[in-house]
Amino acid sequence: MKYISNTPEEQKKMLSDIGVEEITDLFSAIPDNIKLDKPLELPDPISELEMMNLVNERASRNTDLTEADSYLGAGSYDHYIPSIIDHMVLRSEFYTAYTPYQAELSQGTLQAIYEYQSMIAELTGMGIANASLLDGGSALGEAILMALRHTRLNKVIMPKSIHPSYREVGRTYGGPHNADFQEIGLSGSLTDLEQLEEALDDQTAAVIIQYPNFYGSVEDMKKIAAMVEKQKKTLLIVAANPIALGMLTPPGEFGADIVIGEGQPLGNGVNYGGPYLGYMAIRDDRRLLRQMPGRLVGKTEDVEGQEGFVMTMQTREQHIRREKATSNICTNESLNALMATIYMATMGKKGIEEVAYQSFNKTRYLKGRLEGISGLEVVNGDNHFHEIWVKTEKPASEIFSELYDKCILAGVDLSQFDEEEGLLICVTEKKTREDLDKFVSAMEVAVNE
Amino acid sequence: MKYISNTPEEQKKMLSDIGVEEITDLFSAIPDNIKLDKPLELPDPISELEMMNLVNERASRNTDLTEADSYLGAGSYDHYIPSIIDHMVLRSEFYTAYTPYQAELSQGTLQAIYEYQSMIAELTGMGIANASLLDGGSALGEAILMALRHTRLNKVIMPKSIHPSYREVGRTYGGPHNADFQEIGLSGSLTDLEQLEEALDDQTAAVIIQYPNFYGSVEDMKKIAAMVEKQKKTLLIVAANPIALGMLTPPGEFGADIVIGEGQPLGNGVNYGGPYLGYMAIRDDRRLLRQMPGRLVGKTEDVEGQEGFVMTMQTREQHIRREKATSNICTNESLNALMATIYMATMGKKGIEEVAYQSFNKTRYLKGRLEGISGLEVVNGDNHFHEIWVKTEKPASEIFSELYDKCILAGVDLSQFDEEEGLLICVTEKKTREDLDKFVSAMEVAVNE
Amino acid sequence: MNEPLIKDFSTPGRKGYSLPELDVDRVDPKASLPEGTVREEAPDLPEVSEVDVVRHFTSLSEMNYGVDSGIYPLGSCTMKYNPKINEDVARIPGLANIHPFQPVNEVQGSLSMLYDLKRYLAEISGMDEITLQPASGAHGEYVGLMIIRKYFETRGEERNKVIVPDSAHGTNPATATMAGYEAVEIESNDRGMVDLDSLKEALDDDVAALMLTNPNTLGIFEKDICEIADLVHDAGGLLYYDGANMNAILSYARPGDMNFDVMHFNLHKTFSTPHGGGGPGSGPVGVKRFLTPYLPKPFLTEKEGEYFWDYDRPDSMGRVHSFYGNYGVMLRAFTYIRGHGKTGLKEITENAVLNANYLKAKLKDDYELPFSADSLHEFVLSGSKQKEKGVSTLNIAKRLLDYDQYAPTIYFPLIVKESMMIEPTETENLRSLDRFIETLETISREIDEDPEMVKKAPHTTIVRKLDEAQAARNPDLRW
Amino acid sequence: MNEPLIKDFSTPGRKGYSLPELDVDRVDPKASLPEGTVREEAPDLPEVSEVDVVRHFTSLSEMNYGVDSGIYPLGSCTMKYNPKINEDVARIPGLANIHPFQPVNEVQGSLSMLYDLKRYLAEISGMDEITLQPASGAHGEYVGLMIIRKYFETRGEERNKVIVPDSAHGTNPATATMAGYEAVEIESNDRGMVDLDSLKEALDDDVAALMLTNPNTLGIFEKDICEIADLVHDAGGLLYYDGANMNAILSYARPGDMNFDVMHFNLHKTFSTPHGGGGPGSGPVGVKRFLTPYLPKPFLTEKEGEYFWDYDRPDSMGRVHSFYGNYGVMLRAFTYIRGHGKTGLKEITENAVLNANYLKAKLKDDYELPFSADSLHEFVLSGSKQKEKGVSTLNIAKRLLDYDQYAPTIYFPLIVKESMMIEPTETENLRSLDRFIETLETISREIDEDPEMVKKAPHTTIVRKLDEAQAARNPDLRW
Question: ipTM score of the complex?
């Protein structure tokens, strides 16, 4: 494989126009003592045909989700992705473009981002959304830094009901800025609100709530929001699953200051965890906006008064503000945001509601049937969106492996996070009642065997 | 699945603008006695998600060529297809366009066809190529009709060395026009030239030669051309494999009058036999050109003198000439021709030569190794391009099924055509020496078991 | 902004391809092939890089207009939206990557889909049996007439004529000729329908068939179809249905119920498989039971849940394709029909007819409506009023392009002067219909105000009006 | 020719989605969820059809310019051709359709590719260990500095400063801040390289690291790199390599051999994964052996041919991504590197450098070349001469768009006035380079002849110059 146009004759001509003899002459600025004097130890080049054989062989070593019935979720969700998304994303004007520095030749990307911002703002009930961040975890990290800067406080309340990986990322980001993280324990599958109330004080920069939380349950947002509101400076950061917002009240209505989350469920594949996109939305507040990381696209006019779109508020950003920027973020996840945009447009008002309700109802059906199995407990009770936390007497790992023998990926084994035990089981609209019944039968056998 | 925009409210508005009450009122012109009074007996509609599950289940009932090592050819060839072809063809401006009636909005299709015509003409050594026909077989049918019209004679010499299906199509097309088909037998894997010479006379409208022929051998084109040349009126029709023309002398150099063939090997997948494309090229002869079926694209100028492309010589065609047209062909295989165009452009001069030589040399390697197996005869000897005709004492069907157990599709069982026995084995550049060695080992066991 | 020809990017030695190294001996073919059959010099194809190819064809695509670009109101062409999922289905490796000579037991999945498609088409049309072999509409017509030919041949009847109305597509008469028939044209009456008297006059025992589209190319349903059928059948002829306009009647009427004996479908029209800039299409043929023996071979059959190709068809009209027809197109049509199912097809037709009637209602003031009869999925206007002001239908069509919309079919059907045949299809939305109306109204106004400007259209396209006469006079058909 | 917003196509009740019927009971979530958490009204997303969506985004795409449209000479961005096969590989269901929480034994194929990619990157860079977790270049920088932070923390050293040359990308100082460091800028010397005296002055025992790009943003190789490295190391600091310009040195020089301790790669630059209009990227980080313990977790490891994620990394700097980073991007980079192999990478660099030097040789007469030192894959011109005639570099950039070519990076690096940073990459062909040269020469002439026209550029783009000041003053960030 090779994508170079220059032929030897052309190279010769160009070298002569430059005024050197050999291509290697162009590298004379590199001191000899560091110039590489041997070929790289890499395999020999191969052709497209050989490449396809090679990667297909690698793929065959995987078990993919078409080969197993998957109930895995925990931050990466297998929703149906309308066919048109990939067709649109494969338009090379989109995927082979750079960050839209020259707005006049980049109106497609810019308008799509503007639409993305608008729909994310609508979905979350917030005033302003940015053009995307790297993923859900790093979006939480950025939100924490934003809260620290905005409040000039450093206590961050981060309950254990938040995705363990997100908490890790949050701690990494907050670390160099002396964030003081306070973890709040669980009460059943929910955040222990008494503990939360106790921890919350006027030194608190932010309270972070996952919505629905890591264990699949929906926190009592009204109560939490009321607590946070008592502290004037404290920001309420909500990490929301955007699909759940097809059914759940948008965080904006509870007075959230910053809403972030993983945009993957919006039309992006599971893809072994990436590329995904972090989204971030904030209250319509100029002071908060100035602290916001990431690109923003705004609508404006050209010299003839025609509408157009540009990147804006760039004085917040690293390439202008350098060390005083709100973040070092530069590349974000534009193409993934485009996929989310097309998803939101395609599903629309009714579609996103339907996906949410189907996911919820199918989860409810499974929950109901699982509860009939003795030796199995659904910790969530009826408070869930599309994930439930199931505890069994047998270790989850054994159950997982018994169901795997039946080509079922039974859920995420929680023991890997060293905090709780059990399986986190996710059900989306893709499951049929037949799938769920099979799952229940297999689970019955596995639990009681 | 549904692709209708009108909402019930919009329908109401439109009906009122039209001046009727109900949609069904628009169908009042259909007499009641033939108006369908019950729903069609079709399955219920399904969603995209269900559709993908359904078709994937169907696909799983097939054995595809990624699951078996295929040596099948006989008119459908499994060459490597550069990745870029499908990317370009998925540009919806190409694939969702109609026949370029409005040239000014169709310059992309038109220019691509002009390039296709140019490259087909170059490859075949002919003066003029058309914009494509339906497939190889029907291209032969059209060529026969063309020869009948052009010569006003009706004897057509169609040796048995031509693909049996092509001969069937040829007979179908010629039938209503009193074509008198004379089949010429084989001498080894070649056309019996003595028989041919005998049959050829001044009543002969055309001699058809497949190049390489159905059994994989290359006919003595010089000798045949010399014979045909003796008959003033007789046209030489060559059915050439376009990939073979990367190595073989173009038919134009032997004085062919019409060259037709299956364009599939040029960047089109095997696709269970279609859609493929027929190609047709002729001598640069105005009289012949007037008899040519199918679309033609020509270069011209716009009112400002800028170059552009249009469909041309349309007075030959059905929409203008109606019953006096050269053919009824309307839709051809534009998108497949586009794929062939991109293939020819990507492979280029050296690439098409390399594909041809690799196919040839790998076939030669296999042939050499197979000849070492006792009880097996390669009828072609050393005269082959990328197919060889292998005879064994055991019926080919048994050999095929024994190799199929080893995931090898050993070749086309010739007995299905009721003329000859044996296997027609095809080797393209996609095979590795290792594949071929495995094939030989499996064959050794199968032949001698 | 012209894009150069791909050969203009060529430089000796540049490579766009990628192939493995040859891993066997390289021998000289001259040693073993007949003298003179090995070429001395590789064919002079362009030598360009992959980047060159990608940019070139990307650029060409941008010089094209497809259904995804906007309205495509070509009458009788049924340019509806092509669902993307159909493309995905046709590309599933397990469906696409199978060889036509694989034994049937290895391809049961695909055969089941083709068989289902046949059953669907039979139910939709009211015909009894289907062949999927024809690769286009015209190919289907040809197969249909050849079936009729074989039928009469088998019965020992010599019939040499095929009747075609003057409003028919050009393919009808051309097909008749190709199938060895003499095409006899009959006139339409003043309501745009088959004139029964002309038909009666033309009918005799030399007539093999009448070819008819219903609704016809004016979008008008031939109300007298039952009488027409009786007349033809009484004269011993058969009735051929041209399926180009099937989008008008799905779930509302069936050619089989109208007593047609043979018909073809255009999968690339009614069932939304992409036209591809002029193909591939697919033109299955349906017949009544008594014609089954004459269908092309091989014939797809099912026995005890196993599908296979039946070659033992002694009365078959023969074969018209190297393999089984345009399989990839069939997969798309299968997906389309199966996805829409029982209820969806009816909605298609209803909205196609609604959209066409809406356009007609809005446009008939500015442009002459030559036939006032109720029409279904398409209708024909005449530019005669505008022609009187010196602006032809061709000019109007070209002016539409300036507004970034495709033009209707023009100068067809031949029975209407300055005709514009308009078929919006069901997938256009109201916004797009209104824009089309508004544009045609604007053009009508422009013709009053500045006819010269309209006559010089198009103005904003990548090339302006092209000289077709020159192209035909001095054909430049290759570089 | 403006494309409306997608919401402008919305009509209540219109549907673009397709979902199965719910096949279980539908219950009211309000009965079981906390009060007020179930929304009363569905989010007000657009209600449009699939056709609307497809046409809208097709139309938006046509308002964009990508590498497949032509030259994209953004300096430091390495906008090279993105091979289509990389897209195919990343979409193979067996590779794409795997879940991050599948046990490692089910995803050995993918892990083997990631592991191979790590080995390739280590070999290419001369570093010892690699993490693939960072999702972009800036993310990689951040991880790099956090590794350094953790390293010093573990050693009990307090160092609070990071030195950054004034020619560095904005991400460098911003990253330093984000990682809790104070960014200290040092000046370049008159040859465009790090000024050793300034460096010496800035170095003290509070310095944790020096961040450097080599070749730097002027395309100039820092010849004194070994001395620089010694100075920093002698002061107890570490050396960070910004990999943005790796395309200049593949197979010619390695950061590891230059004594850098930590570095990041931009897979979306050097290894041609598509930028996607601003991401996704991927920014793997390489370190010397002694820094391995501080790499992010989980850490991809191999034991006896089995690949797994090691979470037991007590000294790790932590985690910066919810999962393992931008896996899909890694697949593309794997394909690119593996396909090019041993010899291909060298040709990439050679031709990238050749193309850049060719442009420089041709353009330096018309435009000022502020630094004459040898440059590699990119170079910086100044529009100062033109500025004297009243035409700014911004105007020149906009005028380029009128010729359907993208503009270079402008006003960066900051140390050059009216700078234009030009990087053609190896995939441009001579024709395209010559066209770019010719266009810049034409613009230079236009500036002499009609500066006002150039100042008003662009003229032919879909929108003309946009008012950025207004956008920032009155932010309109959503509909």
Answer: 0.97
